[in-house]
Amino acid sequence: MKKINRVYILLIIIFIWGLGSKLKIWNSYIIPSPENVFNSSFELLKNGKLFNSIFISLKRVFIGFFISSILAIPLGIIFGLKNKLYNIFEYLFEFLRHVPPLAMVPMIILWFGIGETSKIVIIVLASFFPIFLNTLKGIQICDKKYIEVGKVFNLTKFQIFKKIIFPSAVPDIVLGLKLGIGYSWRAIIAAELIASSSGIGYLILDAQQISRSDIIVVGIISIGLFGIITEYIFSKISNLYLKKYKVEVKDE
C-alpha cells in the first residue's frame, strides 16, 4: 500500500509539472516541460553521453567509498577498543568532522590538481566520518555484561572481540556504510560541478553554461535515481549478511 501511495505522489507531481508547462504558468526556460526533458533524455541515451557520465561518476564513488571504508572501519575498531587513545584525538576528530569537504576543494585542487585523485580524496573526506563514527559507536556500546560472560568462560581478548564485540557492532557499521555511500554520491556530484571535465556533475554544469535547463533536469533526475538504486542494492546485500545477526537495514 505504501509503495502505491508513493507512485501516486510521483504521478501527481509529474501531472502538475506537465499541466503547469502546458498552461505556461512558468517560463519553460526556467522549468522545462516533461516532454522536453524526456526528449533530451532520449537524445543523451542515444549518443551515450548520459551513460558515460553516470559510469564515470559511479566509478569515482565506488573507488573513494572503498578506500574510505578500509580506513574508517579499522580505525573505528581501534579507537573504540582504546577509549584513552580516542580521548587524546577526540578534539581533532571533532574539528575535522565539522569541516565540509567542499571547503577543502581549493586546497585539494592545489595539492592534487584537477585529475581523478582530487575527486577521490573529496569522496574519502565526505564518507570517512559517517563510517568511522558509527563503527566507533558500535564498538563502544557493546554490553559489558556479555564481555564479562566471555571472561567467565575464559575467552581470550581476540575471541571476545570476534564472538561478542564485533557482532554487536555490525549493525552500526552497516549503518555507517549506508550513510557513507550516500555522502560519497553527494560529494562527487559537488566536486564535478566545481572542477571536472567529465561525470554527471560536469554534464549539469556544461548544460548550465549553454542554457539547457532540460539537460540540467535530466542530470538531477539521474542523480536521484542512481542514488536510490545504489542505496537499495546496498541495503539488500547488507540484509543478506545481517540475517545471521537477526538485524535488518530497512529501506527508507
TrEMBL record:
<dbReference type="GO" id="GO:0042918">
    <property type="term" value="P:alkanesulfonate transmembrane transport"/>
</dbReference>
<feature type="domain" description="ABC transmembrane type-1">
    <location>
        <begin position="54"/>
        <end position="234"/>
    </location>
</feature>
<feature type="transmembrane region" description="Helical">
    <location>
        <begin position="61"/>
        <end position="83"/>
    </location>
</feature>
<feature type="transmembrane region" description="Helical">
    <location>
        <begin position="215"/>
        <end position="234"/>
    </location>
</feature>
<keyword id="KW-0472">Membrane</keyword>
<keyword id="KW-1133">Transmembrane helix</keyword>
<feature type="transmembrane region" description="Helical">
    <location>
        <begin position="183"/>
        <end position="203"/>
    </location>
</feature>
<dbReference type="Pfam" id="PF00528">
    <property type="entry name" value="BPD_transp_1"/>
</dbReference>
<feature type="transmembrane region" description="Helical">
    <location>
        <begin position="95"/>
        <end position="114"/>
    </location>
</feature>
<keyword id="KW-1003">Cell membrane</keyword>
<keyword id="KW-0813">Transport</keyword>
<feature type="transmembrane region" description="Helical">
    <location>
        <begin position="7"/>
        <end position="26"/>
    </location>
</feature>
<keyword id="KW-0812">Transmembrane</keyword>
<protein>
    <submittedName>
        <fullName>ABC transporter permease</fullName>
    </submittedName>
</protein>
<comment type="similarity">
    <text>Belongs to the binding-protein-dependent transport system permease family.</text>
</comment>
<dbReference type="GO" id="GO:0005886">
    <property type="term" value="C:plasma membrane"/>
</dbReference>
<dbReference type="InterPro" id="IPR035906">
    <property type="entry name" value="MetI-like_sf"/>
</dbReference>
<dbReference type="InterPro" id="IPR000515">
    <property type="entry name" value="MetI-like"/>
</dbReference>
<feature type="transmembrane region" description="Helical">
    <location>
        <begin position="120"/>
        <end position="139"/>
    </location>
</feature>
